[in-house]
């Protein structure tokens, strides 16, 4: 059953179902104003959603040292390990919070509605991000990241289901990709905060707090959602069926493990686990390539490039600290440039093109393309380009390619997961699969923190997961060209 009746008749409901879908229309033709509005509002929620997550990535190298009572330029190895471990704990907490919130709010959206639940999720992540600005201990940052992530995970689950239900079949892949790709604007906002505010140290060591204060702004979006959005017709019809048929119960988590949906659930959880683990273990590490290069260049200029830091004297360590402090702004700016090239430019293109690629290669073909490309590009960056004597220009040209291939498959979750479950379970299934993937990735990051792995070690151990993603995809169900299951 398609959902583009409004595309053909101005008098019909904007997302009313129709059994006839014109075959000669392109994905962007015949889309009603209301359908565009749904995409815009869902995407704005996701933009701010991602900003709330990425503002920590942009500021963690400044925030955590201060919360530990030290400096980001401190060279004490024990302190650096403590900073890295607390950052890993915070990211793991964020992933676990997203898993819990995604499952909880996904189920809630099947029961009380998409638009109502979206309001709750946005308020959740907005308020707790703002509160993070007042954290004064590492454990508080970890706890607040969990609460922020509950709203973040829930918003994605609800918004992706709503976009899929409102759009016609021909438009779903591209619209779902656009929705997920809008995340780059959230990343761009975080990059801007890091580049123009945090690097300038306008409030000294407390500057990082400004980024979290901005996090309260998305709460204003909930007023517009309450005013403009209504529940999708498919959801309304599912509620009617549930009233007369006990087997059509909405929001049932246990139903995902029934025979009819078990394969889809397992495959989707595995894909999300692989994608989220490689994101935090490989993609994020890759975006810091220019930062690491800048730090090395500072040491070269200071005549400290050949020092064995494991056996360095106190005087040499002091020289290193002073050299890094003196170029702190430049190093931060290089970090933000790398974040832009990897996560915004390359990653954004990879996300937005998933829908078009999946229309050509199929959903499975698109996932294979991105996972295989991610495997190859990660090996090239971490084992050839980054450790080699390659220029800054070469790295800047390759980082968008790396970002495209290691992030693009994430849009597939918004495109593919809603196609795997019926309306009564769509929010529950989409939310569970995407966010249960956070549990696996959180376990990997938590392990790296407990074992005190360096970022280099973490990325090395997680690169092979891209290859596992290819194998998992081969076990998946192909849904290209199919109607959303009722």
Automatic annotation (TrEMBL):
Pfam families: Sugar_tr (PF00083). The keyword Kinase does not apply. GO terms for cellular component: plasma membrane. It is found in: Membrane. Keywords: Membrane, Transmembrane, Transmembrane helix. Residues 38-481 form the Major facilitator superfamily (MFS) profile domain. The chain crosses the membrane at residues 36-57, 89-107, 119-137, 143-166, 178-198, 210-227, 266-286, 336-355, 367-386, 392-417, 429-453. It comes from the Bacteria. This is Niacin/nicotinamide transporter NaiP. It comes from Fuerstiella marisgermanici. The lineage of its organism: Bacteria, Pseudomonadati, Planctomycetota, Planctomycetia, Planctomycetales. The gene is naiP.
């Amino acid at each position: 059953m398609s959902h583009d009746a409004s595309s053909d008749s101005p008098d019909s409901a904007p997302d009313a179902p129709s059994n006839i879908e014109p075959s000669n229309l392109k994905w962007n033709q015949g889309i009603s104003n209301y359908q565009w509005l749904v995409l815009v509002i869902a995407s704005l929620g996701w933009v701010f959603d991602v900003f709330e997550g990425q503002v920590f990535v942009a500021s963690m190298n400044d925030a955590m040292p201060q919360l530990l009572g030290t400096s980001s330029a401190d060279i004490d190895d024990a302190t650096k390990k403590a900073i890295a471990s607390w950052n890993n704990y915070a990211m793991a907490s964020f992933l676990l919070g997203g898993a819990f919130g995604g499952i909880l709010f996904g189920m809630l959206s099947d029961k009380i509605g998409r638009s109502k639940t979206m309001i709750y999720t946005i308020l959740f992540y907005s308020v707790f991000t703002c509160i993070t600005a007042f954290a004064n201990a590492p454990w508080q940052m970890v706890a607040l990241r969990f609460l922020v992530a509950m709203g973040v995970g829930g918003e994605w689950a609800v918004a992706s289901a709503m976009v899929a239900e409102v759009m016609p079949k021909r438009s779903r892949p591209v619209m779902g990709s656009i929705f997920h790709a809008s995340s780059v604007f959230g990343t761009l906002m975080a990059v801007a905060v890091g580049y123009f505010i945090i690097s300038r140290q306008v409030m000294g060591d407390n500057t990082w707090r400004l980024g979290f204060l901005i996090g309260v702004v998305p709460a204003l979006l909930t007023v517009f959602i309450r005013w403009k959005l209504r529940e999708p017709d498919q959801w309304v019809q599912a509620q009617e069926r549930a009233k007369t048929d006990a087997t059509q119960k909405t929001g049932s988590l246990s139903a995902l493990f029934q025979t009819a949906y078990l394969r889809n659930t397992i495959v989707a959880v595995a894909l999300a686990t692989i994608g989220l683990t490689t994101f935090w273990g490989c993609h994020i590490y890759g975006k810091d390539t220019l930062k690491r290069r800048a730090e090395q260049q500072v040491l070269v200029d200071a005549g400290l490039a050949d020092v064995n830091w494991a056996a360095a004297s106190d005087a040499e360590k002091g020289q290193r600290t002073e050299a890094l402090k003196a170029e702190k702004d430049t190093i931060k700016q290089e970090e933000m440039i790398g974040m832009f090239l990897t996560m915004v430019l390359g990653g954004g293109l990879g996300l937005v093109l998933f829908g078009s690629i999946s229309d050509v290669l199929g959903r499975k073909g698109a996932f294979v393309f991105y996972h295989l490309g991610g495997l190859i590009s990660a090996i090239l960056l971490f084992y050839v380009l980054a450790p080699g004597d390659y220029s800054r220009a070469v790295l800047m040209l390759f980082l968008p390619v790396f970002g495209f291939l290691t992030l693009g498959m994430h849009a597939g979750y918004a495109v593919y997961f809603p196609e795997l479950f019926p309306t009564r379970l769509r929010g529950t299934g989409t939310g569970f699969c995407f966010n249960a993937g956070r549990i696996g990735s959180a376990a990997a990051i938590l392990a790296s923190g407990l074992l005190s792995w360096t970022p280099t070690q973490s990325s090395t151990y997680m690169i092979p997961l891209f290859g596992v993603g290819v194998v998992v995809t081969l076990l998946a169900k192909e849904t290209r060209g199919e109607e959303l299951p009722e």
